[in-house]
Automatic annotation (TrEMBL):
The lineage of its organism: Bacteria, Bacillati, Actinomycetota, Actinomycetes, Kitasatosporales. Residues 34-209 form the AAA+ ATPase domain. This is MoxR family ATPase. One of its GO terms (molecular function) is ATP binding. It comes from the Bacteria. InterPro entries: AAA+_ATPase, ATPase_dyneun-rel_AAA, CbbQ/NirQ/NorQ/GpvN, P-loop_NTPase. Pfam families: AAA_5 (PF07728). It comes from Streptomyces mexicanus.
Length: 293
């Protein structure tokens, strides 16, 4: 993925509708140049996962996603053997009268029976973007395994030997910080913290991602979300919720929003009863009047 500068990376990402600041543009450029993963940390809904999709689109590479969860292990992330096909092959060989046990074993553990999971697929696909999503949900053992794979961009399959990436994938790791990820993995990566954007930047994102909605609606929703984030909420809305709320209002045929409609559609932006109750106590009319349009 040839790039000459952070500005070029920024331009290509913005062509996909993904807006980046200087720090993220530099991190992505260095990730491409140095073959280092980008470790993206921040609240849910601030654009971490979307970065991987934007990189894949910008550089015409497939996006390969590994969704982490509690209890994920190496076999789920790396590879497995296609046992049903191996069994069919074994029965066919027996029916054909094949008696050579060593030959059968070699055939059974041939690459055609290898089921590549996301990590191995990313190593075998050039170019590619590997998204390791929500690494904070995995356990310490999986972190250590992932660190080993990302350090050398190679894996060892006992029956086949060492498989190396001819061209390392672009790797994006995300964390919602439900727990602290170990320093060893972070040291391997280029770190970037995703904060909630300010009003002007968030409005630009909404206008870029949803050009079909009215400028007034985009500005009003952005102002409302900024006000909600200032409250002590259990789950402050991210940019993803801003976009969802704007889409919902647009789907209702609204070209602008008033206090009554804002309250009626809070379920598009807030996902906890306590947050909804707190939001209902706000003076949405005053918030809307306080932002010039």
């Amino acid at each position: 993925m040839p790039v000459d500068s952070p500005e070029q990376v920024r331009a290509r990402l913005e062509e996909t509708g993904y807006l980046v600041d200087d720090g993220l543009a530099v991190a992505c450029f260095l990730a491409l140049k140095l073959h280092r993963p980008v470790f993206c940390e921040g609240d849910a809904g601030v654009g971490k996962t979307a970065l991987a999709a934007a990189l894949a689109e910008a550089f015409g590479a497939p996006l390969i996603r590994l969704q982490c969860h509690e209890g994920i292990d190496a076999s789920q992330a790396l590879y497995d053997w296609d046992f049903p096909r191996q069994l069919l092959h074994l029965r066919a060989a027996e029916a054909a009268g094949v008696k050579d046990a060593e030959r059968l074993e070699r055939e059974l553990y041939d690459r055609r029976f290898l089921l590549a999971r996301p990590l191995l697929r990313a190593l075998q696909t050039q170019p590619s973007v590997l998204l390791v999503d929500e690494i904070d949900r995995a356990d310490d053992e999986f972190e250590a395994f992932l660190l080993e794979v990302l350090s050398e961009f190679q894996v060892t399959v006992p029956e086949l030997g060492t498989l190396r990436a001819d061209e390392p994938p672009v790797v994006v790791l995300t964390s919602n910080r439900t727990r602290e990820v170990h320093d060893a993995l972070k040291r391997r990566c280029l770190y970037h913290w995703f904060d909630h954007p300010g009003f002007a930047r968030e409005l630009a994102i909404v206008r870029r991602r949803l050009p079909e909605v009215s400028a007034r609606l985009a500005e009003q929703v952005t102002a409302l979300v900024q006000a909600l984030r200032a409250e002590d909420l259990l789950k402050p809305p991210g940019v993803a919720e801003t976009l969802d709320w704007t889409r919902a209002l647009d789907a209702l045929g609204a070209s602008e929003v008033d206090a009554e409609l804002a309250v009626a559609t809070l379920g598009s932006v807030l996902k906890y009863r306590e947050d909804t109750d707190r939001a209902r106590a706000l003076d949405f009319a005053a918030i809307l009047a306080g932002r010039p349009t």
